[in-house]
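Hi V.,

You were right to ask for the full record rather than a summary. Here it is.
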Amino acid sequence: MQSLSQQNPSSDVPTLEIPGEDETGQYQAGPWLNSPDQWGSLTVINPLDTDATASALLIPEEQPTPSPVPSWDCTDLNGMAWADVGGSLPSPFSVIQQLTGPQILQTELVSSRGEVQPLSPMSEALCQAVDTRQSQREDQVEEIPRQILHIPTALSEYFFTEVIPLYCVWDSKSNIMRSIVENMWQSSGALHHTIQSMAAACLSETFPHLLTIARQEHSLALEYVKNREEFPAQKQALTLAMTFLGHTSSWISPNNLAPDMYRTSCKMLEDMNEGDGNPATSFFAGTMDYWGMLLAYLTDSEESDVPDTTSASQTNLIEPHPYCGISNQIIKVLRSIGLLIFRYRKQMSNIGFMTERHVDIFRDALRHARRLERVLLAHRLPDLSQIQDPGDPQTSLIHMKLMDDAYRHTGLLQLYRVFPDLLIERYAPWDKTNILQPVPETKIPSAEERQVWLTELALHVIKILEEIPFESRTRSAQPFIMVAVSSELVIKSEETSGNGGFACLDQLPLRVSKARKFLASRLAAYTHILPLQKTRAISQLINHIWSALDAGEQHVYWLDMAYQKKLGTMFG
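Predicted structure:
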């Protein structure tokens, strides 16, 4: 995600003027873990609704609006018909060009001899008519506001210049997601309406009227996907639109995790059948892995057979994924951990009295967790020389490597929290050099000793994040890690209430306090550049977690708090 100062200045944006209906209310979301049926709640929009057209733009109705969509008969926002302009895209933040007409600079004719001759009656009448028409045009131009935007064009440009860099962990000309959108958005109704929805949602904090447009465009895109009104050659566009719609449903309604869209996207990916080695296949497979990982901790998902996402160029270099970076394999492991934790806690949450069946469930889950722990411990970070540089100056290869390391330690933290037997088997007083090389247990730790160890591991993860500057586009993937470690940042009141204060500046409570401030400040900055309701929900969730910890509650876990407070959203 690139710095806003290097893109269109924010001062250009306030030129939007949208006098439509004042609908800025919260979009009502269904209960957590019970996603609404996306196909049954589509907003039907009349493509010939001229009233909606007039409310969306400040352009006189008698003036046709040029369009960058020459190859398919699609309606834009609120039903405006688009026309071919030869593929040229005007800048959406530019002033409407003033009309110009033929210039009559003289009212006399010059003969071939150099003599000035008066105009004939017919010529004089013609010149007067042209002058009158010219004057009327000039008066008309002066009446048109100079800061008028063609909203669909403005949203499209905003998507390419702002949304994509905010959405990916790196961005450049080699970003295959960007390439697919640039090549197909003008010929795919689903993709066109999807990017309109995403851009409008990102701008809805500043321009509340755009939230209504975001919902309408989201519904229109879903209708296109449902009807599959695309050519066979546009399967990539349709599949990409579906992944966008599902992953960004939380942009419009934070609690909408859209697991049904995930399942539909998996089926669409199978139908693509592009063949192994195709860059698009690898991209979509990695997309489904990342999306599935985020859903696994919050929904009752199922294991799906997604093709191997390992991507290597002809030089055998690792090609970073726009969402996963170089962490494709760790993302898969994190997804398996999420599926295991969700199902295990769901099965064990309603136990009144223990039975042998419950014991079997526990043993099976523990064996599975132990296998996943071994995979994480055996994972080796790649050398920088093994990674293909995507050419994004804001996201270096070191940033991606640090994210891979943070993902791995976050996975271990989840396993040791939910399955404390794994930590007991390897327990020794905290030493970060032994995190990935466990020594035989030296003692059976108490509950307090286990908590201190987990807190130290959480602080270690945050130290990794601190090495990544906020300007790095990997910030779009960091909220998941921040939430997952937040419930281990425990500050015991008895450790800070003594008269002597902190024994030393490195004392655990002080380091935990600093870590909390770092997470809070980074999330606040992220909310500023991506002002969505879901980013505020993430901050609210972390604040609830810390309030519960400070109140002395025991066994506070971020997934439980997300369920209790109905703040489960897409944390990436």
